[in-house]
Design a protein that fits this description.
- Two copies of one chain form a homodimer.
- Chain A has 656 residues and is an alpha/beta fold.
- The first copy, chain A, is built from 15 helices and 27 strands.
- In chain A, helix 2 runs antiparallel to helix 3, helix 3 runs antiparallel to helix 4 and helix 14 packs parallel to helix 15.
Chain lengths: 656, 656
């Protein structure tokens, strides 16, 4: 009906074979009809399904075929089952494991099985008491002869023996059909059958496979200048590893511009000692995005840091912020990459109502867009070559989608282990688009979801809505830009609550340095900016916050419990209270129940109503993974009392 | 990420312009991501929507463009509105009317509007009290100069005047920005604006537009041999028109085979007087699908019938049954179109447990499939040339999907007014596939849906599920093959109930001759076959059933009430009874309420609980369109009493 289908029909008439009678449709999982890849991690099993339709009443077979997308890689074939046959459906399901990172493709191959159809027909007619089956037996003999020619060894003998009996006209019909219907014959023929009308799903479906850290990761963000530069940061690595952090995210480490440099608390005039904002990147004579701020250390020290981190299982994540200070070398080397006003002035960056007088955006519509894209690619690749495998991308939603899709794919071509976190707090569909086109993880609205209903609604969407196939939420509790009122108003208990929520709702979460010390003084009442923000001044930081033992314990629990390393297994539990949130996560034998207060001020009493279909016995033993206590819980209502000064949550492992 | 997107990215790098920064996604209505066309009728307004995404914070504009799919046809442009802007969504909606039958295409064209963005920025800065807007004003002047160059007349004068003030550096900032923000200037510039980054949705979306009868039609099925052949049938046309039927469906009118001809009641041996089954098509020396059975009349008489019918607004629908008796000329002319067993015998058709010993299917996998497709095309075209504009297609689900897609498209190329009804009672997805690929109407499971819950469930799916875009149900009450137990057991009241349901639930329905006479004797208890079925013997039929006055009234009501000529407006009404079904249909000013008993045996009492949101006043006058009675009804519960011997339903028009 559409123009495309007209052409297909005409083409089919021109070619030799008739168009396939099979249609393979509605494959899952896919994103936007196959336009984008779904995301998985190494070791995941991908459950797939598709409709397999054909006219008529023939017996169909189908398999799922999967392989890494490299040219020449052979298909690996996996069985599919017709899952709704008994209700006259057309859905087939199967699965395959993705055992290496990178791009994968999969398809469904379906075909017609005339021997099975023949067998069903003979069986039906035998059961109906029909005697004259000469025509059917002759048809069967043709198929058996063809099968025998393709078989060898035991199979050949089985088929040949059956053929002899089938063609023995001196034998009775019953004896001959009995042979035709044996299970042994069926198995032998199926094993060597030709795949009639074999039809491949078009287009193939895509899976992008990341290393496990894309799904399960624990982030700590710090400004290296507050820790003595790269060597000072390197000294923190043993403790960070002990605390359970496996991604150490550094804001931009590049030279900082001097023109329009911001002073303390975002003032427009910097004092001589003010270090400037790390996101105002570039200084003439020192360098741009490829360079390192001299105060932080040398390139060698940076590489030593990434190497030392890697040795402890920690990724150093770098900030990829494609923007320039007025002193960035690009402004002189590539003036054509910037938009100037009619009066020749540059326009500083704005994200209303925020203003960045020290920052200029590039013009993505420049005629030399190829040069610009290539430059960013080379910068990114340069950092990969210095050991960076994770990038936190600043404001990706203000740069072209096509650019990101291209950049991520180019980097992934040789480095499929590189992860990209999208720092986009913007319209939902734009955030989704960035995740679809390739970002490995995404910041979320989590910091602004503090009430029970909004946590349940938002996490349900992330865990169980269409985004589950491509959008991996990274639940930061705070960032240098986001100090939520809940933390400001709630005091220390609020910090324990929010960390526990982030760490147990999502397999990936993060904190920005200072969180563990309950830092919560806003620039002014109602502001989400920190007072005396580290963005504008030097601090002297240390890993000594009072919350660290709790952080360490929670992160250890996450490592010990595979159920907490996934999002798709999130299941809410009724608490009969708006002040208490509860949920279960199960993965294989591991089952964790979390009951957490949302109220940082007053004691909350509630029940955790354990549903029968979690598969637990009427009474079961649980261990509180935070306190070490043991309780007997039971199906149905379990009383809980959560006191923000003493215990904000139960994190219970069900003991077997 | 997928192979396709890699290529697109690489291609973009090769070409001159950067890839578009706009993405236009998730267009609705579409079927299977645009693989198939949605269906509409001439005069329908097509409501469309799509996501329009771009990075950054620019102001976007979008229009929907639609046109008949003919080459060279110009686009007609219609406005789109950003419908969820205030909740930070990205959805745009618009509509267009389809005013002629055939294939249509539509697309969304979106672009960036820098003048609107500039205007918003100036407004924001003015409101913030900023004084130094020299840079902004200079930017605006550039845009105004460009706009002035594109404008003429009053617009040119408006823009030029504003430009003069804007550039007057002696004037104050306020005076200059006031000019920049006038509504007149905005309108003048928008009217002549360039469409920056103009981006077309790819691929375009398709709509197939039928004449109105595709949606709203009233079918009567008769075997012409029971009515004196074509001339006898022609004599019935005035009464059929009076009764409100507008499609007269004839089972196959072709010569009938003699080999293995069936006798009365499907017996395997025919007597010398037995006429055979009309679906056993073809007789050597007389003809096949292109020929007319000599007992029915001449080709001229057939053409006279279609012409006389057309003059009364009735379509003669022919049966397209691609199957052959053993005596069909194709068996000798095209033996390669048939599958023979190893012993040379043909295999008769089966649809387990049904057997058709008098019918042979063609082999769609024949090497000469092109010849076979072409032959069916020529046969179909031949009947079109004899005045047939509607085909009821027999068992389309046992022929290749690709064949139907091709055939329907080929016929539609020159004859977009031809309708195809799919007679497929099979797996749901196969029925959907046939509708998707082009069938105008479809038989349904309606005959087997007699309980309230199954009627509500099924009609809700058809009216409001994804099928609403492409699947038009034709609710036949009975067919020569389907005499449902409800009719057998329920007696005359069951017939009134089922006709009323079919005729008011769906804009398209049909009855098979004999229904109006309460014919309900099954071949044997539990069978859905009629005793002494017309399929196997000659009858002497007349339009004299006792139900005809009711049929005539119901069909007249359908014609008078546009609300009954659509399915998408179906809305259930609570009755507080499993024995009574109620629903409302509204179209523009027309509102019809139907309350119908489902119990053909006993009196049912119930309420029709009219919901407030139908927009009716607390008390409103209704007229029973069947009885002429008038009542006062009110919002909330209205008592109804339905006695199967006296009144099976209220069909109430709300009076204004």
């Amino acid at each position: 009906m559409s123009e495309a289908s007209t052409l297909a029909a005409v083409d089919a008439l021109r070619e030799g074979a008739p168009p396939s009678r099979l249609r393979i449709e509605a494959p899952e999982p896919t994103v936007d009809g196959g336009r984008f890849a779904v995301k998985r991690c190494v070791g995941d099993r991908v459950d797939v399904s598709a409709d397999v339709l054909r006219d008529g009443h023939d017996v169909l077979r189908a398999v799922v075929r999967a392989r890494p997308a490299r040219p020449g890689e052979p298909w690996r074939e996996h069985p599919m089952v017709h899952v709704d046959a008994h209700v006259r459906g057309d859905r087939w399901a199967g699965s395959f494991e993705v055992d290496e990172p990178g791009a994968w493709v999969w398809t469904v191959l379906a075909w017609v099985d005339p021997f099975a159809a023949w067998r069903e027909e003979v069986q039906r007619k035998v059961e109906a008491g029909l005697q004259d089956l000469a025509g059917e037996l002759a048809e069967g003999a043709v198929m058996l002869r063809a099968a025998a020619a393709r078989a060898d060894g035991e199979r050949h003998r089985t088929i040949q023996a059956a053929l002899g009996l089938l063609e023995d006209e001196t034998a009775g019909t019953t004896a001959r059909t009995d042979v035709a219907l044996t299970h042994e014959l069926h198995v032998a023929v199926e094993a060597v059958q030709e795949r009639f009308e074999a039809t491949d799903m078009e287009p193939h479906a895509a899976v992008w496979v990341d290393r496990l850290r894309a799904r399960f990761s624990t982030w700590y963000e710090l400004f290296p200048r507050s820790w003595g530069g790269f060597t000072g940061v390197a000294e923190q690595l043993p403790r960070l590893a002990e605390l359970g952090f496996d991604v150490l995210y550094l804001p931009p480490v590049h030279p900082i511009g001097e023109t329009n440099r911001k002073g303390r608390n975002n003032t427009l005039v910097a004092g001589p000692e003010d270090p400037g904002v790390p996101w105002a990147i570039g200084l003439q004579g020192v360098g741009g995005h490829e360079a390192i701020h001299p105060d932080l250390g040398t390139p060698e020290e940076f590489e030593a840091l990434t190497a030392a981190a890697a040795a402890r299982g920690i990724d150093v994540a770098l900030d990829l912020a494609i923007q320039c200070s007025a002193d960035h070398p690009w402004l002189t080397e590539h003036p054509e990459w910037f938009n100037r006003r009619p009066d020749g002035t540059l326009k500083y960056a704005e994200n209303p109502p925020k203003k960045y007088q020290d920052i200029y955006n590039v013009n993505w519509n420049t005629e030399d867009w190829r040069g610009l894209w290539q430059a960013v690619y080379e910068i990114t690749l340069g950092w990969v070559q210095r050991g960076v495998r994770v990038f936190r991308v600043d404001n990706p939603h203000t740069k072209p989608f096509a650019f990101w899709e291209w950049l991520i794919e180019e980097i992934h071509r040789d480095h499929p282990d590189v992860l990209f976190l999208a720092e986009a707090f913007t319209r939902r569909k734009v955030m989704q688009q960035l995740a679809k086109l390739g970002f490995s993880q995404s910041y979320t609205y989590f910091t602004w979801k503090n009430a029970k209903w909004e946590l349940e609604e938002y996490l349900t969407e992330l865990a169980h809505g269409p985004e589950r196939e491509y959008f991996r939420p990274n639940l930061f509790t705070n960032t240098p830009d986001i100090l939520n009122a809940y933390l400001v108003d709630g005091g220390p208990a609020a910090f324990y609550i929010r960390l526990l929520l982030a760490a147990t709702l999502s397999p990936t979460y993060g904190i920005y340095s200072g969180f563990e010390a309950y830092e919560n003084t806003p620039l002014r009442p109602g502001s989400e900016e920190y007072l005396d923000s580290e963005k504008y001044e030097l601090k002297d930081r240390a890993l000594d916050g009072p919350m660290l033992p709790f952080v360490e314990r929670v992160n250890a629990v996450r490592c010990e419990h595979p159920a907490l390393q996934r999002l798709s297994n999130l299941r809410w539990i009724e608490t009969e209270s708006d002040g208490v949130l509860a949920y279960a996560k199960r993965w294989e034998q591991d089952l964790v129940l979390v009951v957490v207060t949302l109220d940082p001020r007053t004691v909350q009493e509630a029940v955790a109503n354990v549903p029968a279909d979690l598969g637990l016995p009427p009474v079961f033993a649980v261990e509180d993974l935070l306190s070490g206590e043991r309780f007997d819980w039971h199906l149905g209502r379990n009383y809980v009392r959560l006191d923000p000064d003493f215990r904000v949550a139960h994190v219970l492992a069900v003991r077997h």
